[in-house]
């Protein structure tokens, strides 16, 4: 988890905050979070993963509509270059297109 945190925090203006007991990474809005998973792994989950190109083929939806992520069980086996490309694309998306929640408002 420390390696992924360092990878994310090397980007300018990225801020980490603990939300829902896991580290979330912000710029203008939530970009991603690190989620512990079974079998001693970590998932780096991108909030707007459905809007990312996934040209690298590493993002998994896992039956989620919006959040897509990359599961990491062995940092040495991590496709680091591909992950850095996904992170940069997510940060660019956050920078250029404001996030608009698709949740229905209560009472409407």
Question: How many distinct domains?
Answer: 1
**CATH uppermost class:** Alpha Beta
Helical content band: 10-25%
Rg result: 14 Å
Give the structural class. Answer: alpha+beta
* Shape assignment: globular
Describe the biggest sheet?
5 strands, antiparallel
Give the strand tally. Answer: 5
Order of helices and strands: HEEEEEH
Low-confidence stretches: none
Strand order of the largest sheet: 1-2-3-4-5
Multimeric state:
single chain
Work out the helix count: 2
Distance between the first and last residues' Cα: 40 Å
Q: What is the average per-residue confidence, as pLDDT, rounded to a whole number? A: 90
CATH architectural name: Alpha-Beta Complex
CATH fold field value: Aspartate Aminotransferase, domain 1
If you had to describe this structure to a student in words, what would you say it looks like?
It is a single chain. This protein starts with a helix and ends in a 12-residue tail after the last helix. A five-stranded antiparallel beta sheet has the order 1-2-3-4-5. The chain has helices spanning 2-9, 80-96; strands at 15-19, 22-26, 30-37, 41-46, 68-72. With 108 residues, the protein is α+β, with helices and mostly antiparallel strands. The protein has a single domain (2-94), classed as Aspartate Aminotransferase, domain 1 (Alpha-Beta Complex). The model has no long low-confidence stretch (mean pLDDT 90).
């Amino acid at each position: 988890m420390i390696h992924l945190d360092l990878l994310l925090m090397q980007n300018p203006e990225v801020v980490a905050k603990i939300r829902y007991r896991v580290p979330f990474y912000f710029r203008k809005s939530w970009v991603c979070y690190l989620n512990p998973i079974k079998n001693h792994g970590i998932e780096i989950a991108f909030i707007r993963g459905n809007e990312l190109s996934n040209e690298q083929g590493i993002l998994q939806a896992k039956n989620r509509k919006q959040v897509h992520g990359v599961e990491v069980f062995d940092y040495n086996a991590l496709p680091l270059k591909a992950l850095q490309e996904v992170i940069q694309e997510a940060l660019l998306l956050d920078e250029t297109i404001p996030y608009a929640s698709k949740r229905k408002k209560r009472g409407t």
